[in-house]
Amino acid sequence: MTTRSLALWLALLAAGCSRKEPSPEYTRASERFNKLYATELDDAYVDPAMHEVEALLERVPADSLDAQAAKTLLTRIRDGRAKIEKTTADREKALALARTPPTFTGGSVTPPPPPPGTKPAGTVSAPDAGPPPAAPSAGMSVREFNRLFGDCFEPAGPVEVNGRGTSDSFTLVDSRRCQNALPTMGNSVVLADSQNVIGVVPKSALRREPVDGGRPAPPDAGG
Question: What are phi and psi of 205, to 5 degrees?
């Protein structure tokens, strides 16, 4: 090989090697990822801003010096997001199971008549611009009940409401804060279906009915 041929071959080799350069997309993606992760830790994986980081990583050229690093970071982000979403889903499932009402058989109650001007259950009320209600009331949506008073009530089990079938019931939790905030609800039961609060009745209104439909058994005389 002549000197001229060797020089030409070296020039071509150098030109081929010079193609692999750092990627500006990876540089920006890495900087944004580090900033997000420094402030949010693993929660950064589910931050909407992380989608921009992913988009930059996906644009890193395959022949870039940063191609493998971009692929690794992209995998880390997606695996981290999947783990966070699974943990959240598992937590929500556990909370839903914890909120399952206990078994409560034989309870029966006649719902009170709705207050004057109250729309029938199942209708959608227009937003009320006035002050929020001070206590649960018939016609209130379950969503509003949970938003305003959910932390002060706990499930008391399903109750058979005459003429309406089985409904959920809720009683005031044993909390000084809640009892002070809702002093009239200590001896009351909130009845609700899947959409609306049916009514608020005294606990004394609940009556236990025999399972077989007959009269309750007389007290045991002993012996």
Answer: -75, -20
For 156-222, the DSSP string reads EEEEEETTTEEEEEEEE-S-HHHHHH-GGGTTEEEEE-SSBEEEEEEGGG-EE--TTSSPPPPPP--
Q: What is the dihedral of CA 9, 10, 16, 22, to 10 degrees?
A: 180
Q: What is the model's pLDDT at position 96?
A: 75
Tell me whether residue 177 is in a domain.
yes
Whether 196 maps to a domain, the answer reads yes
The amino acid at 59: R
Q: 81 and 43 in contact (C-beta within 8 Å)?
A: no
Q: Structural domain tally of the chain? A: 2
Q: What is the structure's pLDDT at 164? A: 74
Q: Token match 């706990």: residue?
A: 154
Predicted local distance difference test score (pLDDT) of residue 101: 53
Domain that holds residue 187: 107-122+132-208
CB-CB neighbours of 60 under 10 Å = 24
Domain check: are 79 and 148 in the same one? no
Average pLDDT of adjacent 10-residue blocks, the chain of 223 residues: 56 56 90 92 90 92 90 93 90 74 50 56 53 87 91 88 82 89 89 89 72 47 42
Tell me the β-bridge partners of 159: 167
Question: Does residue 114 share a domain with residue 87?
Answer: no
